[in-house]
Amino acid sequence: MLDRSIAPAFKIQDKFELHKPDSAYLDNGIPIHIIRSGTQPLLRIELIFKGGTWHEAGNGHSFFTTKMLSEGTKTHTAKEIEEKIAFFGAFLDLETGADRCTIVLYCLSKYLTALLPLLSEIVKCPTFPEEELSNLKKITRQNLEINFNKTNYLASIHFKALMFGKTHPYGRYLTQESIEAIDRSVLIDHYSEYFSSDRCEILVSGNGPEDFYKSINEFLGNSKWGHEKDNLVPAHNMATSKNLFEPKEDSLQSSIRVGLPLFKMSDPDYFSSYIYIEILGGYFGSRLMKNIREDKGYTYGIHANFVTLKNAGYLAIGTDVKKEFTANTIEEIHKEINILNTELVEVEELNSVKNYLLGTFINSINTPFAIADKFKTIHFNSLDYSFYDKYIDSILHINSSQIQEVGKRYFNVDKLSEVVIGGR
C-alpha cells in the first residue's frame, strides 16, 4: 500500500540531451537552421531580421514596419492574405522586439509548399498601403489610450525609461505623438534598411518532409533580395537611473517596479546572479512571495526577473498592491535583498531552488518549438551550447557563500531604481 503521509522522494535531474539544429546556407547566403523534432506534422518557420528597436531611426519605425508587412503586397490585399492563411489552417505572427523583427509562420507540414509563395511575397514585396496604415495607427492609438489608464502598463514603460533613458531604444515607448509622426515613407526606409537577405536568418522547427529545405530555398534562397547593407551595430548610451512616483488619484492600487542594471548573458557572474534572483523572487516559493504575498497579504503575486537583451541586462521586480501598502511593500523588498546579502541561505531552501530550476529547464525542452527557442537564446547572444552545460553545472554546485557574495557585489538596495504608479 502507498503511504500518502510520506512525501515521495525526488531525484535531482542533472542529465539532459538538447537537440541541436542542422545549419546550412540557402543559395543566396541566408543562414538556415533546421531542428527536426516532434511527432506531430507541424512546422514553425521563423524569418529573423536584425531590425528591432535597437536599430530603428525613430520611435515606432520597427513596430509599424513589421506589422504592415502582411497588410498588402503587389498581388494580394490584406484580406486576401488573411483568407489564404486561414484556408490552410495556418497562423502568421509578426513580432517586433528590442533587437530583432521576426516573421513567424505556423502550419501543417503538408501545406508548407502551398504557403511559401505567399510568405516569400510578404517579406519581399510589401506595399504598405496608406489605408491599412491609417487603420493600424488608429487601432494602436486606441489601445495606447486604454493602456495609459492602467497602472501596471505605465509602471513597466516608465521603469524601462528610467533604466535606459527615454530616448534609448530599450527605454523608449510609443506615445500618441510618435504614432502620429509615422508615415509610409519611414516604413519604406526601415524596410529597405533591414529587411533583406543579408540581414535575415531562417529557423525551422518541427516535423516536416525531408525535402522542405529545397522548397524554402526555391522561394527564399534563389536570389538575393533587398538592399545589401553592412551589419554595423549602432551604439547607444544609457541614462542614469532614478526614482519616479506618478500619482493616480482614482486608482485603488499601486503598480511597483524595482530594479537595477546588470549585464549580458556572457558575463561570468550571470549564472550566480540568475540563481540569486530566483531565490529572491523567481518562483512561487521565493522569499518575496512568502513575505509579501503569504505572510503580509499585500499582493496576489510578486516576481523578480533577470531580463536579458542583446546589449544589456537588468533586474526587474514587479507587483501590484493596494495603495496603502505601497511604502511597506518597497520596504519589504529592500529587507529581503539585505537579508539575502548578509545571511547564508539554508541548505534545504537552496536544494529546493536547485531542484526547481533543474526541473523547469528539463520541462522547457520537451517540444520542437521550445528547443528552437533555446537555440535562439544562445545563437543571438553569441554563445554556444556549452552555455547550458555551464548553467546546469552552476545550479548543481553553487553554494550559499557564492550567492551571498554575488548579492553583495551587485544587489545593493541603494542602487535600486523604483517606479510607483498609483497611490502611496
> What structural category arises from helix and sheet content?
alpha+beta
Query: Order of SSEs, N→C?
Result: EEEHHEEHHHHHEHEEHHEEHHHHHE
Name the overall outline.
Answer: globular
Annotation field: number of helices: 15
Q: Count the strands?
A: 11
What kind of assembly state do the chains in view correspond to?
Answer: single chain
First-residue to last-residue Cα separation:
56 Å
Task: Note poorly predicted spans.
Answer: none
Helix percentage range:
40-55%
Radius of gyration: 24 Å
Tell me what the structure shows.
With 424 residues, this protein is α+β, with helices and mostly antiparallel strands. 42% of the residues lie in helices and 18% in strands. The protein is built from 15 helices and eleven strands. The protein has helices at residues 61-68, 78-87, 112-124, 130-147, 151-164, 176-180, 184-194, 212-220, 270-282, 287-295, 326-342, 347-363, 368-379, 386-397, 400-410; strands at 22-25, 31-36, 42-49, 91-96, 101-108, 200-206, 244-247, 253-261, 302-308, 313-322, 417-422. The strands form two sheets. A six-stranded mixed beta sheet has the order 1-2-6-3-5-4, sandwiched between helices. The chain has a five-stranded mixed beta sheet with strand order 7-11-8-10-9, sandwiched between helices. A hairpin with a 5-residue loop joins strand 1 (22-25) and strand 2. Helix 3 (112-124) packs parallel to helix 8 (212-220), helix 10 (287-295) runs antiparallel to helix 11 and helix 11 (326-342) packs across helix 15 (400-410). The radius of gyration is 24 Å and the shape is globular.
